[in-house]
């Protein structure tokens, strides 16, 4: 990335999983490591952007040069994102839980002989779709599509449904080693076409993506 490629820009990135409370001690989570989102935030900061990274619970250190906001649930993440706007670029790299449970305020007790509890799931807000439709929509809204089949077709569908400008699609099927791993094989899907990258370290994917985002922003402004 050229130094200063994103100078003067505000970039908001979501990263990591979300935790959805079941009761005060239990939660629903997913296997997102936050590696890709954190690498994107770090690369954008190196490119000169002011970066707000909103991340769920991860085992990673805060990337240097970023304002980092730690959240737990999808609803907390949405609130933090709304607080962080306006921005020039939004990158939704978090693995946001699709559903939550109506959390119990007290620990659910295991009673002798009682039936196992069951939970009704409630749909979480879609942060990416909400940012893409916000009245202060960032000029560039980028989503991720982690798929196990028909990666490109699903990404195209997601692009339209979520109203974003770009989808970074990748194959997370078992054996791909992408989820939680250090490498990613990404396809950049936009309304004008698909750009497929080789398998790269997540840091390298982040650098390429940041360079492309700077180019796309410049093109949009020239248009
Ligand atoms: O629909 P799906 O979860 O596959 O879409 C993935 C993309 O949408 C990612 O960019 C993810 O960060 C974003 N997303 C979101 N809020 C949700 C679900 C997904 O921002 N509730």
From TrEMBL:
Binds 1 FMN per subunit. Pathway: Cofactor biosynthesis; coenzyme A biosynthesis; CoA from (R)-pantothenate: step 3/5; Cofactor biosynthesis; coenzyme A biosynthesis; CoA from (R)-pantothenate: step 2/5. Transmembrane segments: none annotated. Residues 11-223 are annotated as: Phosphopantothenate--cysteine ligase. Keywords: Decarboxylase, Flavoprotein, FMN, Ligase, Lyase, Magnesium, Metal-binding, Multifunctional enzyme. It catalyses: N-[(R)-4-phosphopantothenoyl]-L-cysteine + H(+) = (R)-4'-phosphopantetheine + CO2; (R)-4'-phosphopantothenate + L-cysteine + CTP = N-[(R)-4-phosphopantothenoyl]-L-cysteine + CMP + diphosphate + H(+). Its cofactor is Mg(2+); FMN. Residues 6-215 form the DNA/pantothenate metabolism flavoprotein C-terminal domain. CTP binds at residues 98, 107, 125-128, 144, 158, 162. Its EC number is 4.1.1.36, 6.3.2.5. In the C-terminal section; belongs to the PPC synthetase family. In the N-terminal section; belongs to the HFCD (homo-oligomeric flavin containing Cys decarboxylase) superfamily. Catalyzes two steps in the biosynthesis of coenzyme A. In the first step cysteine is conjugated to 4'-phosphopantothenate to form 4-phosphopantothenoylcysteine, in the latter compound is decarboxylated to form 4'-phosphopantotheine. This is Coenzyme A biosynthesis bifunctional protein CoaBC. It comes from Methylocystis iwaonis. The lineage of its organism: Bacteria, Pseudomonadati, Pseudomonadota, Alphaproteobacteria, Hyphomicrobiales.
């Amino acid at each position: 990335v050229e130094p200063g490629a994103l100078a003067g820009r505000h970039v908001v990135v979501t990263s990591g999983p979300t935790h959805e409370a079941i009761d005060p001690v239990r939660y629903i989570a997913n296997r997102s490591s936050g590696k890709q989102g954190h690498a994107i935030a770090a690369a954008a900061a190196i490119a000169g952007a002011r970066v707000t990274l909103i991340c769920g619970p991860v085992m990673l250190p805060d990337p240097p040069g970023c304002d980092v906001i730690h959240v737990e649930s999808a609803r907390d993440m949405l609130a933090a994102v709304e607080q962080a706007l306006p921005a020039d670029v939004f990158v939704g790299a978090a693995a946001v839980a699709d559903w939550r449970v109506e959390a119990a305020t007290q620990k659910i007790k295991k009673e002798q002989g009682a039936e196992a509890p069951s939970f009704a799931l409630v749909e979480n807000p879609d942060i990416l779709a909400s940012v893409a439709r916000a009245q202060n929509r960032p000029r560039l809204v980028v989503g991720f599509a982690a798929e196990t089949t028909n990666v490109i077709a699903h990404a195209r569908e997601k692009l339209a449904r979520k109203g974003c400008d770009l989808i970074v699609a990748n194959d997370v099927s078992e054996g791909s080693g992408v989820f939680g791993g250090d490498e990613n094989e990404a396809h950049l899907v936009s309304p004008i076409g698909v750009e497929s990258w080789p398998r790269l370290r997540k840091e390298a994917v982040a650098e390429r993506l940041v360079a492309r985002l700077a180019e796309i922003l410049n093109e949009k402004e020239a248009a």
